[in-house]
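Q: What structure does this chain adopt?
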Amino acid sequence: MTSSTEGGTSSAPAEIPLVDYLALEPAPHLVANRCRQCGARFFDRRNACAKCFGTEFDSVDIATEGTVRTFSIVMVAAPGVEVPYVPAVVDCDGTSVRANLVNIEPTSDRVKPGLKVRLTTFPIGADATGSVGVGFGFEPIGA
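A:
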């Protein structure tokens, strides 16, 4: 990504979302495919709606704040995966989003159904050219 300035140009490393449905501009948000027939929302590409079998979709931005519906605290994982971590299902204004909770102590004293959270992004690594991979999760509101 290159931007012009009066004295010349400056280069910033490219940011590359981990998944296609994570949009970084103008502000980070998720984008779902919405069935035009029934309104069901999906984050992956579909040939037909799993709910009504409709075949026409449009894109819709997903709310960036939501409520934890269910979660698990993972204490044992594959080698190389840091534990504990908290995968959760977050209700974002009627759309279920599966993502990890971040910036919260992974204990049942802190994480509870009904917890209010917001979308956040974070770098997950960089390649040899400096391009940065960007992941997402949800953090408690007020964190």
